[in-house]
Amino acid sequence: MSGLAAGIRLAHFGKKVCIAEKHGRGGGLNSYYNRNGIEIDTGLHAMTNFIPRGGAKNSPLMKLLRQLRIPYDELCLREQNYSIIQFSSASLSFSNDFDMLKTSISDKFPSEIDNFLRLDSHIMSYNELDVNAPYVSARKTVSGFIKNELLVEMLFCPLMYYGSAVEKDMDFAQFAIMYKSIFREGFCRPEKGIRQLITLLEDRFKESGGELRYNCEIRRIMNSGGKTVAAITSGGEMLETSNVLSSAGSLETMHICDEKPANFAELPEGQLSFIEAIFCIDPGTNLEGIDYSIKFFNETDNFDYCAPDTAYSLRSGVFCCPFNFRYDERKNERMLRLTVLANHNSWRKYDKKTYRGKKAELSEILLKKCGELCGRTDLRQRLVFSDIFTPETVRRFTGHINGAVYGSPLKFKNGRTHTEGLYLCGTDQGFLGITGAMLSGISIANMYLLK
Ligand SMILES: Cc1cc2nc3c(=O)[nH]c(=O)nc-3n(C[C@H](O)[C@H](O)[C@H](O)COP(=O)(O)OP(=O)(O)OC[C@H]3O[C@@H](n4cnc5c(N)ncnc54)[C@H](O)[C@@H]3O)c2cc1C
After folding, report:
1. Mean of the pLDDT values across residues 352-368?
2. Domain ranges of the chain
3. Closest C-alpha residue for ligand 1 atom 13
4. Which residue, of 141, 293, 381, 449, is most buried by count of CB atoms within 10 Å of its CB?
């Protein structure tokens, strides 16, 4: 997503630009595939940063559309109904109308509502886009406003699941980005799923004169004397260039550079990965009462966001009902999606047969978990098909070390690397998620290649 967005900007301004993607399809972590004649989004639960038509011009989504010259209506965004944060002793609801969260906090934590509103004002006036800002602990900052620990944990849960590469805590700037994009703006989905967005981006890129090469892996980045010289494809072709913008990840990119940075061995690998399960159930299944779009759940009152010691953990997760968005047409498919934290080492060490067996076993366990979350005991009988992604799937399909969906905990906020003409965009620049990745591509292209 970040690569496509950057490519569009560069092509618009007449740069000779080529996107090299090692897979046969675009979208990276958020692509699509077909199963049983049904198109499935590999990742998409929801896009963040929803803004209604004609909404604030300086909002991230509006800026993004302007920069890519995409008319708002072409995205066909459909809003969530509402979402839930469910912990063992309390639950909160929020929607794209901020008042729902305020009311929910005021009902469940009456003594904290003023503190929450003070935190909200602090975040709304905070400049989270300052690329030179030092790390500030979000936990410390938030706890300076809110005294009730349970409420603090509950606020962190969705923000970490949808955007933290760091375990346990996050940078306050990242917290502020996620807070604004989820609680202040909110969730939506393109009417026809992620393909709609990818096709739009690909078409815009090609119309603007960009060259899009699929099944084209970059195996080597030639840099010499601190300068970028060329990129070499898997086919052995040399693409001569003094500027490479990489969305492959920081370490992943440096691995293929001829000259590595002096601190290469000390750069931290991402550790956080997830299991993503998709269950397609019979459309006739009665899911009455399940009208929320996304439920963020945590089995206890302490939210422990870190890679589990075991292959996966059911102690917390994200349960998504993609059919509960406000579509124009009722969806025929009934998909249920479940994301839980996973340990990449466990999945890597299995041989092929054990790996398949573990996946099948886990599929049953996660289906049962979905049943518990939506109060149904017959999902097994209602199942049309299921699929599961492990950290290994993410690693194999995207090249992300350890299958770390949000990349390295160390972000390169200004996009610069050890080499002139080699820039990072997307996940390891630090803007996460679909909207974040596109904004990252645009910002880095604007900052360094379109001066
Ligand atoms: C299961 C799952 C669910 C998700 N759900 C959501 C969601 O609901 N909402 C949301 O906003 N975000 C979601 N995300 C996160 C979101 O998909 C990512 O944050 C975003 O796609 C990152 O985009 P990117 O451009 O930084 O990088 P990536 O998507 O990682 O793209 C990098 C691309 O580079 C290619 N590549 C890597 N190395 C090379 C090489 N050497 N040569 C050529 N090509 C190479 C890869 O194949 C890949 O296509 C989800 C992610 C996952 C895995």
Report:
1. 96
2. 2-78+190-268+406-449, 81-186, 271-398
3. 433
4. 293
Strands 83-86 and 294-298 come out as parallel
pLDDT of residue 313: 97
For residue 69, which amino acid is it?
R
- The CA 312 to ligand 1 mean position distance, Å, reads 21
Contact 1, 19 (CB under 8 A): no
Q: For ligand 1, atom 14, name the residue with the nearest CA.
A: 433
Q: Does 440 score more than 80 pLDDT?
A: yes
pLDDT mean over 366-393: 94
DSSP letter string, 21-64: -SSSSS-TTS-EEEETTEEEESS-S-BS----TT--TTSHHHHH
Is residue 296 a contact partner of residue 318, using CB atoms and an 8 Å limit? yes
Could you name the CATH architecture of 2-78+190-268+406-449? 3-Layer(bba) Sandwich (3.50)
Query: pLDDT-based confidence at 286, cuts 50/70/90?
Result: confident
The DSSP string of 256-296 is TBSSPPTTGGGSPPP--EEEEEEEEE-TT---TT---SEEE
Instruction: Return all residues near 149 (Cβ < 8 A) that are at least 6 apart.
Output: 143, 301
For residues 336 and 309, is the Cβ–Cβ distance under 8 A? no
The predicted pLDDT at position 95 comes to: 98
Calculate mean pLDDT across residues 392-405: 94
pTM of the full structure:
0.96
Q: Please state the length of the chain.
A: 451
Whole-number pLDDT of residue 244:
98
Question: Which pLDDT tens digit goes with each residue over 101-144?
Answer: 999 999 999 999 999 999 999 999 999 888 788 889 999 999 99
CB burial of 53-82 (b: ≥16 within 10 Å; e: otherwise) equals eeeeeebbbbbbbebbebebeebbbbbbeb
Beta bridge partners of 33: 40
